[in-house]
Amino acid sequence: MRNSELIMMFLLLAVLSLCKTNSLACNEREKHALLRFKQSFTDPTNRLSSWSLIEGCCGWAGVRCDNVSGRVFELHLGNPDDSGKSTLVGKLSPALLELEHLKFLNLSLNDFRGTPIPSFLGSMSSLTYLNLWGALFSGLVPHQLGNLSSIRQLYLGGNSGLYVDNFSWISLLSPLESLDLGWIDLHRDIHWLDYWLNERSKLRILDLSNNALYGELGHCLMRWQSLTHLNLGSNNLSGEIPESIGSLFSLKAFHLHNNSFSGGIPLSLNNCTFLGLIDFAENKLTGNIPSWIGESTHLMVIRLRSNEFFGDFPQQICRLSSLIILDLANNRLSGSIPRCLNNVSAMATIPSAIDDKFSTLKFSIYLGLQRSSLGYREDLILVVKGRKSTYTNILPLVRIVDLSCNNLSGGIPIEISSLFGLQSLNLSQNHLMGRIPENIGVMKYLESLDLSNNHLSGEIPQSITYLTFLSYLDLSYNNLSGRIPSSTQLQSFNPLDFIGNPELCGAPLLKNCTENEGPQGDENVEGSERSWFFIGAATGFIVGFWGVCGALLCKRAWRHAYFKFLNNTKDRVHVVMTALKWSWVCYHFRRYHMISLGCLRGCNQEGREERGGGES
Q1: 348 to each of 322, 402, 423, how far by Cα in Å?
Q2: Which of 298-312, 313-327, 426-440, 559-573 has the lowest mean pLDDT?
């Protein structure tokens, strides 16, 4: 029994060793081609250190071989580090042409020093995936790319130095499913959209953002009913959003941000039932935010900031349980913030990479590999902590509500504190009144809180000290009062974050309220009693005055008696004053007369004494 087990183990190890040997075996011609390809780069972090003559090329980093033939069919050389630390620097070598079976080529986020995309890439007819995104190419996009008859995913975006002078070659790529031309200058060919008028049922991703496109959108989009991701942001497009957009039944993400679109959001967009992301920010859209938006149950991102929308805040948004980003800032919305926002359950849960609701927006390419290194990536420009930032990889983990710069009124509903997973809350520059919710401290994942430029009153809740992740706070220009709660975190903020609240005191403000903290309640009571005293005195005066004057006006006999009494009183006063006056005169006359007589008697006596002295 034991001998049979040993034999079986030996056979298993032999088979595994044989499989490993076969997997590492590669075509010698392709091996030397790859080594020549390596020589055209500098590799500061030694990403390609395994590429040597000693080891078979199928075991090299980033190289994938066919298990049967051993021919190289995939090169995964995209920079895995977005910071650029692992960048390959150099230029593309024609040695790639010897990889006749290559289907997958990823060179994204490397540094090709502004060199043009080589036209020989158009001869690699086996390619089904080509990713040159953000690899610092420049110059003309070669027409020869139209010869890639098998291409399904083509990512040339992120190279701001590229331009297209004739876009006709794109119509030759019939198998194309995903096309990213973001940041490429397309304005030299004003008929760029005409080449797409034929039926393109396979195209699922189209990114033409930052392309200097201009003009109106037209109705040609209705032909691309297989589109799931459409990005036309940051161009010079104008006119109204066409109703034909509702024909894109498979649409999941729709970007029209930073254009000059006008009019309202078309009703037909309600037909796009799988829509998960709407980014129409920074346009000239107007009207009410449509109520049907609450029926789009898959919506996770609504970004409509910097438009001209007006009317009440749409209550229907509360039905969007999957919503993680709500940005309606810088519009003319009015009314109150709805109390039902606590129904948005995605914001009430802790963000987790495991429970990724955003995954429904991801585009899974045919290899089923990680989208962050291979496929199309959704990104958003969000204003968080007072500055604009682009979110890409961590976008699924972001939870934001931004309603700033509107005309919202009323109070901050206490239900908003039920959004435990919220990371940024901006309600600044509105007309909100009342107190800050006392239980705001339960929003423990809050990193940014901006309530500035409102009419909020009362004290800052003590529970705000529980927000340990809070790194941005602005409560300036309200009517807040009392002591700023004590915590290491709150006292570390800039005094400008609390300025414009005259009754607020304590660190980090220079106004010290330690001495006045105790009697503050007694002063309030005394002030209240003083107010009631003056109110009572004024009321008593009014009642007494009109009680007397009203009686005199209504009763003639009383009026005559009253004025007769006043006349008699006047006479008596006059007599008394006259008598007092004469008494005063007589008193002073007699006093003066006696003083004068005394003086005369003194003078006579002194004269007699002088004469008597002379005789003697």
Answers
A1: 10, 16, 11
A2: 559-573
